[in-house]
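Morning!

As promised:
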Amino acid sequence: MTDADEELSLLETLDHLLDRGVVIAGEAVVSIGDVDLLYLGLNVVLANVDAIIRTSQPKQIK
Amino acid sequence: MKLVVIGAHRERNDIEPLAAAIAVSDLWLSGMEVEESQPLGDRDLLLRVAKMRAALLDRATFVAIRYGFTAHGSEDAFAKCAAHLDRWRRVLNDFRDHVEMTLKVAAEAPRARPDRHDFESGAAYIRALHDATRATDVAPEFRKVVDETLAPLAVKHRWSNRDTASLEFAALVKRRDVAAINDAGSALKRDFPSVPFLLSGPWPLEVFADDHE
């Protein structure tokens, strides 16, 4: 496997890890430095716009 | 400590001793235990989780959980996953011997991505981005051959628009058919040298974990 192939394989693996699979509602703590500013109970998904569009129906984003 | 969850499994033996296992009803979650203060964006953690994910799939098929979900023991995991358990149980039983393969294909004519500055509202921008994504397509002759050669090897398959520059063909295949899928991919490479595509896998249940009825 060439270096380019290895890099492609790694990118593909990380794409699947970060952008696939079942999304579970969770929680997050928003912090600056060592100070916790916000605790969020999440029932929404933090994702990039492309990912949101792929899982949305057109009528839902009007 | 917290568990960075990787997947949902039917059997405890599918997980241990490769990864940590916690019970959720009659199913099991796999994951990697890390310190509470461990940032999930850490590059080394990502790579270790990716490696563990691949090792778990070698052992047995599981439902992939998107990276970023953490749990603190069985009670916490059950509270967060209860709504999914019936569906997971069904897919894990029905697709125990299956894996997913994906074929990413560059668009024949990539659409220009809309510029947010050209739109007055976020909703209008999202609509335009959606339209551009949905309009993306690959070379018809390439898609036809994929439908004729890869699709018949799959138990389920689906084309989806991922962005304005590519489409993805996802296939749920029996493990014994992975080699045949790879052979079909090699034939595609030979017959369509000018079409950029990437065939990858096997992957755990990702695309087809959510739509099982």
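Chain A has two helices and two strands.

Hope this helps with the figure draft.
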